[in-house]
């Protein structure tokens, strides 16, 4: 779990994670929820909402990320690993973080 130290929610407004816990394809989605829902990660942006929606309708697991600029990232976790979802999430966060952009220009 070394990746947890690099997850920063500065550019994120809301993360909605919905899944049916009785399906076999939700492991990576639940791991992603555990990662972004941890106290250490949540402390990087206390205004970010992390909402988990547990369903019992055999629906596919979906992660919906809304950034502060209004852009959305929707990941369907049925065939993605936690690492793949985290990589896509972090690359978007880094693109939107003004401090990282300013540091790269120097």
Describe it for me?
The chain is α+β, with helices and mostly antiparallel strands and 106 residues long. The chain contains four helices and four strands. It has helices at 27-36, 39-42, 82-96, 98-105; strands spanning 12-19, 49-54, 62-67, 72-76. Strands 2-1-3-4 form a four-stranded mixed beta sheet, covered by helices on one side. α1 (27-36) packs parallel to α3. Keywords: Mitochondrion, Ribonucleoprotein, Ribosomal protein, Transit peptide. One of its GO terms (cellular component) is mitochondrial large ribosomal subunit. It is found in: Mitochondrion. Belongs to the mitochondrion-specific ribosomal protein mL53 family.
CATH class term: Alpha Beta
CATH topology: Glutaredoxin
Please identify the oligomeric state: single chain
| Secondary-structure content class | alpha+beta
Strand content: 15-25%
Low-confidence spans: pLDDT under 50, at least 5 residues?
none
| Strand line-up across the major sheet | 2-1-3-4
Number of E-type strands: 4
Largest sheet: 4 strands, mixed
Helix content: 25-40%
Label this structure with key terms:
106 residues, alpha+beta, Glutaredoxin, 4-stranded mixed beta sheet, 4 strands, Ribosomal_mL53, Large ribosomal subunit protein mL53, mitochondrion, transit peptide
Topology, please?
Elements: E1 12-19, H1 27-36, H2 39-42, E2 49-54, E3 62-67, E4 72-76, H3 82-96, H4 98-105
Parallel strand pairs: 1-2
Antiparallel strand pairs: 1-3, 3-4
